[in-house]
């Protein structure tokens, strides 16, 4: 009888872990608040951390997280629409391709072990197709995925990434837009509900003391049908790079030419 119960228990655990909904938690703005950040890392190796490339502690905290088993992504600063204080090398839509490439390359070398990127702020930048196209062009050399923080509804991240075969995932919930423990707790429950409904969800938070407290409590009491997962578990496999057809090439050039000013080159007199 005991043996039977034991096997039933194993079966239940197996079914539960196969069918558990996946919740990824990403904590942004790493590199400034060492104490809080170390606490967050200590909660679980499945929390993903997003490091600001020009923060004073970028290299150390990325290395520490990696050693603990946490996945690291680059929290790439992008221009917002509002007037907020900006990180060094914030990306703007009107930067040249070369400038964008320099910023991206420097960010990659400042954040060791990064496997992806998400945007810090960016309502202005991520809603601009040409701006994001330059970012994707610079990123595709580095084989990183892009997590769209979705700081604006009409984001161009997916459109811009498609030409470069860069995997894109999107945030579902911001945990701490309102910085009180009760609000953060409600947002965490919302992320759990979305995961239970869709099978997966991505929540983004910040290393605020209130967020640290809520995470400590919530992660220790996750519902049994929810699995906290590393962000890489939610990245869709890339379709094998298809050879561009003549139609694709024509479409791409048409997009470019439509943006050029009227040159009036071939007007017969
Ligand atoms: Zn941020």
Automatic annotation (TrEMBL):
It comes from the Bacteria. InterPro entries: Divergent_DAC (IPR006837), Glyco_hydro/deAcase_b/a-brl (IPR011330). Signal peptide: none annotated. GO terms for biological process: carbohydrate metabolic process. This is Divergent polysaccharide deacetylase family protein. It comes from Gilliamella apicola.
